[in-house]
Amino acid sequence: MSVLVYIEINKGEVKKASLEAAVYGAKLxxxxxxxxxxxxxxxxxxxGLENCGISKVxxxxxxxxxxxxxxxxxxxxxATTSGASTIIISNSYAGKSIAPRVAVRMQxxxxxxxxxLPVSVNPIVVKKGVFSGKAFAHVELTKSINVLAxxxxxxxxxxxxxxxxxxxxxxELSASPSYAITDTQVQSGSIPxxxxxxxxxxxxxxxxxxxxxxxxxxxTVLKAATxxxxxxxxxxxxxxxxxxxxxxxxxxxxxxxxxxxxxxIQHLAGVSSSKVIAVINKDPEAPFFKAADYGIVGDAFxxxxxxxxxxxxxx
Amino acid sequence: MNILVCISVVPDTTTKITFTDNNSQFNRxxxxxxxxxxxxxxxxxxxEITEKSGGEVTVIHVGGVENEPxxxxxxxxxxxxxxxxxxxxxxxxxxxxxxxxxxxxxxxDMILTGRESIDYNSGQVCGLLGAMLSLPSIxxxxxxxxxxxxxxxxxxxxxxxxxxxxxxPLVASAQKxxxxxxxxxxxxxxxxxxxxxxxxxxxxxxxxSAHQSYDLPEPKSAVKxxxxxxxxxxxxxxxxEAKII
Lengths: 315, 245
Ligand SMILES: Cc1cc2nc3c(=O)[nH]c(=O)nc-3n(C[C@H](O)[C@H](O)[C@H](O)COP(=O)(O)OP(=O)(O)OC[C@H]3O[C@@H](n4cnc5c(N)ncnc54)[C@H](O)[C@@H]3O)c2cc1C
Ligand SMILES: Nc1ncnc2c1ncn2[C@@H]1O[C@H](COP(=O)(O)O)[C@@H](O)[C@H]1O
Prior knowledge:
Chain A is an alpha/beta fold and about 325 residues long. Chain A contains seven helices and 18 strands. Chain A folds into two domains: about 1-170, HUPs (Rossmann fold); about 195-315, 3-Layer(aba) Sandwich (Rossmann fold). Chain B has helices at about 35-55, 70-75, 90-105, 125-130, 185-190, 230-240, and strands at about 5, 10, 20, 25, 35, 55-60, 80-85, 110-115, 135-145, 150-155, 160-165, 170-175, 195-200, 210-215, 225. The longest helix of chain B has 17 residues, at about 35-55. The complex binds flavin-adenine dinucleotide and adenosine monophosphate.
């Protein structure tokens, strides 16, 4: 028995969500009294996994573009080699597309959207988000092998001794038939919203796309990502990738600053798990204040410049 | 082109979520149930594709008879026929196992799902079906076309977007922006009454998981208000009190 963590690599570096998965896996392995290993599928063996509690890193040298079928077969191979009974995968876009395939290949159970370490390990009971952030469920997994897909930003990264010794393996991999990535657009410079610890978000209260300069500036000085409400992306004031909420993306940053957003239930569904919420709205009755830790009743066009000023003065 | 669209039935997005029986059961009382919003997008796109290339759209739902009004709505939107597998699935794996058993020898060119079901938010059925049926699965797509028998799909990746070309058959899950969902019209509603809705008994696997209990998020402590004239104070509190910047 052991734990296996799927590691995602971007430009040679281990993604933050995968470091979280590694720490989660290592802590779970401690609870179970077993080893935690990792699998990385990349051109080069990853560095930066030392002190994440990982014993062994299985490396499959592969230069092919990401293909869910291929990566799922690679994870299966590493899980079989290492005798894994629990497989930890981040609930990132890539992770989501392989976790269920791994579960079927391993005849395993699966729970996704996991937000905390299991309260019990025999049988394994996990806590996961349900009803779009409006509740949590405690789910008992009944199979002997299980896949846990971990919500990003659910666990603190901390240092745990672990050698992370690299072992190359070259199993036969499956591939999706006639599958090719024909174009990739990367948002350069900006912080990906799903990984961001700080998020500055704005809504229809900003009146028009021409007023987003101050939102971007506040985000830049705070080193935050930007997000928006649904109508804002529907009107194409902002790119669709920024839309958070029930029908947009769900985020769980340490700080969510909502500017000129009313706080409709569908919006809150995507952001209510944020650790701290600060709301700026000119309407004292705006429902968002009920979900907020800090609030300012005021005009965004006056308040935001003051926030930028104050943030610049932080050293 | 024959397309199977998987439909889950979920509480309306404005529902206040509560539980009964010592937090072990979702309280269905007074809750309005709807077709999962992402599944309406999948259905609409499937209809557009078959309108262009010919073929049929079948919707499938794994659930109880109480969900038939939502299945009829899918028929009113334009699906040609519907299947209901008579089982209330405990999790995504149970639902997928029923759908895979039904679909395996039907030769669909495409199976579409929603990105996630907004009640259990598992986001797994697309990948589960792909693996169970040994088909490629492409998650969270906001663009789907068929060109010369190949599918062209766009999807979000972490920090960007990619375009994929993939042979048929395949499984894909729909994300917003794929299409504007269609609203059923009077003719569709009338036609739906006589379209076939076949009910089948379950044949799939069970016992992957058991729900034990639910929690609601911790109630927020009272909001701390800051005067707009002294707005910079917020930044100080975020650093010194909340210690997050
Ligand atoms: C099925 C369904 C799914 C949905 N999914 C989502 C979703 O995923 N995400 C989402 O965001 N919405 C979603 N919605 C829409 C949601 O119900 C709200 O309509 C939407 O969130 C409102 O966006 P908003 O707060 O930006 O705009 P508004 O509701 O128009 O609010 C604007 C706010 O700005 C304030 N304001 C105005 N001027 C100023 C100023 N100068 N300074 C400060 N404050 C100001 C106003 O007081 C008001 O509170 C969904 C709706 C449905 C039916
Ligand atoms: N009971 C069900 N019957 C039919 N399709 C379902 C069912 N549950 C989930 N699905 C499909 O799978 C998608 C993702 O659901 P989930 O993996 O449960 O989040 C949904 O959007 C539906 O398309």
